[in-house]
Amino acid sequence: MLFVKIIFLRMTILHMRKQVEKENIAPEIQSEDMENVFYDQDDLNIEMDIFVVEECMGKSFQDASVQTEIQCAVEYNSNQTQTASTYFMCIYNFEHDNDAVHFYTGLESFQKVQLVFNSLGESIKDMKYIYRKPPPYMTLLNQFFLCLIYLCQKKTHFELSRMFNVTLRDVRNNITVTWIKVMSLQWREINIWASKELVQFYAPTDFYKKFPLTRVIIDGTEIPINKPALPLAQQATFSQYKNKNTVKPVIGMTPGGLVSFITPTYGGSASDRQIIDRSNLASKCDLEIL
What we know:
- The chain is α+β, with helices and mostly antiparallel strands.
- It is about 60% helix and about 10% strand.
- It has three domains: about 1-85; about 90-185, no CATH class; about 195-285, no CATH class.
- The chain has twelve helices and seven strands.
- It comes from Rhamnusium bicolor.
């Protein structure tokens, strides 16, 4: 509408100029009309300036708006990417946070986690998973970290899958099962039985004065399991003490608190005496103790 108005004013001014030239109007009238004409011309110039300024401002505002939207979109995507990369659990996020490492894994520091991880040897690099390899961003150390959290904190498979951004199946049927099996096969080769000198050196003073010959303190522990389908397995694993189906190992520790003996697991119906008789514990102790 403003553009049409400007064109109309231009045509009106041209028409008035022609009329003045033809009719030879008196100087007073001509002067007055010319003032009006010049006044209208000034208005026209002002309106033209306003029109040009508005057009320029509108374009600049539009460009600025588009630029702002693009910048906001870039910042949003950047924030989303940054959030996605820092939200999920990773062992390297706690490299300098020993309190968090101790809370999640039970080990005192990041360096201690690496030490325990390295004790598994080079064979873990060729580890064969039960189903498939985990995603590439789940490094071996990060998988080990996940398994430690599972064992120490008793996190559910679903929670771990969300914490580490992996599928529930990978956590439940692949990572935890594979790593527990590997740790069992590798660490059972380590001789954890403590020597007599080591036991006496780390034993509490009061305990050593009363029981100087004690090498190991043993006790049975029961782990609940799902009820087996076979009746014979149900009978073998049913514990009268726990009133449920369990598996049962006997664990021994030194007076100083170091775990030094673990038997294979048996069904919950087996007694502690039966498990000890079937183990090689007697052969490890000195004859004078027996």
